[in-house]
Amino acid sequence: MNNVLAIAQRELKSYFVSPIAYIVIGFAAIMFGYFFISLLYYFDRVSLQAGVGFGGPETVNVNEMLISPLFLNVSVILLFTLPMVTMRTYSEEKRSGTIELLLTAPLTDVQIVFGKFLGGLALYGAMLAVTLVHIGFLFAFGNPEWPPVLAGYVGLLLMGGCFLSLGLFVSSLTRNQIVAGMVTFAVFLLFWVINWIASFTGPTTQGVLNYLSIVEHLNDFARGVIDTKHLVYYVSFIAFSLFLTVRAVDSERWRG
């Protein structure tokens, strides 16, 4: 476990000694703030119309009308930021030649992969922590329910873990950061839009496409519902992607 934590610390430090961490966190903060302000204005307008005969709803709920859509919009942010986090993880090691030092160290492939995954997850956690400022604003001046908020963050953490683990695998296949970043973004986008054609297919295919959609599983979390089938999907996705990465690193060790 100490080896895993040492690699995670090394990986996290590498993000902050380069502009990557600051660009990712800054971009996420700006976009999240934009989404927050937009939804807050919409919620405020609907609240003024509620129950006064202007065509608005009888009641308004801050969790349903503001926080839930806000969490769903975060998936767009992940689509653009997490490829930047993972694209250099192995590609840069191969390009600079430090991958040989890493592979000849007294470390197992599982320790290397899991340590790098935890390092990326720590950076992603810092990115999510910035958004707590906006959520704290709602709790300070409103009355949202905290269980749905907690469930939403659990869903975002799991979804980000899926993206990170998949990005690690793509990065382990090439020594070019740009290629790793573009391929990772393309694969992310595929899992993001895969169910867009579901309504044009048969019931069996529609069910499969909806299940494969990584965003579809976030919907219940955003509404405050933690369903076992969504947990199984996300955990299985992460485990399988990390397994593939371990196999890719193992093949690199044998080729080296």
Outline the structure in words:
By secondary structure, the protein is mainly α. The chain has one domain. It is built from eleven helices and no strands. It has helices at residues 2-16, 20-49, 62-86, 91-96, 98-104, 109-141, 146-171, 177-193, 203-212, 218-222, 228-255. Helix 3 packs antiparallel against helix 8 (177-193). The longest helix is centred in the middle third of the chain and has 33 residues, at 109-141. 34% of the residues are buried. The mean pLDDT is 84.
Annotation keywords:
globular; mainly alpha; 256 residues
Q: Helices and strands in order, then pairings?
A:
Blueprint: H1 2-16, H2 20-49, H3 62-86, H4 91-96, H5 98-104, H6 109-141, H7 146-171, H8 177-193, H9 203-212, H10 218-222, H11 228-255
